[in-house]
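Annotated sample (chain length 249).
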Amino acid sequence: MKHATNDPILPFWQTRYGLATAVTVNNAVARSLQLYGEWAEHEAMLLSGLIEEGQTILEFGGDFAAHALWMAQAVGPLGQVHVAEPRRIHFQQVCANVAINGLDNVFTHAVWLGRGKGSSSLGSLVPGTRKDADEKVRMATIDSLRLDALHLLKVNQPNALADVLAGATETLRTHRPLIYARLSGMDTAEAEVAAIKALGYRAWSHVPYLYNADNHAGIDANIFPGLVQQNVIAAPADSRFEFAERLEL
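Output written by the structure step:
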């Protein structure tokens, strides 16, 4: 068995796509970055075949910029990656990782993307938020960002997808991007998929394991045994995209 090289005491972690600032490993993303030097790499494997240089990507839910680092490389200097992260400390951590890697094609937005504007408490938006972790967050719609282009919309934030889509109708109508999203759970998955399809999209299932045997650090130990994400990849019904090897929803 190989051993991790990312010391929790050091200020930075070496990851597959660049440096990451060391943070408290109190969630799956941070534990994965510290131990394996990557997070949800099976998502990157799927999407890397779909992203091209010069494209524009919007990601909701920063995940410490774990995926923004590789997406910034994938779209190149002529492309753009926009990351929306509403939580104050998480937003600052995303900005830190973008800055230390010199990613001038990444733009960060301290907002909760949904169907409305103004502000709200995090607790009212995310069920189960601890009272001591609640905070006011700014709200905005994707349409209000007025992006000049959009080729991929990536939604990592749970309990948000239906509202994100409701606030993006003009953007989706104009740019017709691919959509990749983590579904929120059994109680909401059907409605979330229906919201995607109602926009004229086809949707396919993607169920990536959290553990990647070929991880960047070469660690054999699996701290996520049997754990998967229930995700969806969607494309406009009239587009060239077809994911025949995946279950259509």
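Annotation: The two ends are 39 Å apart (CA to CA).
Annotation: The first helix runs from residue 28 to 36.
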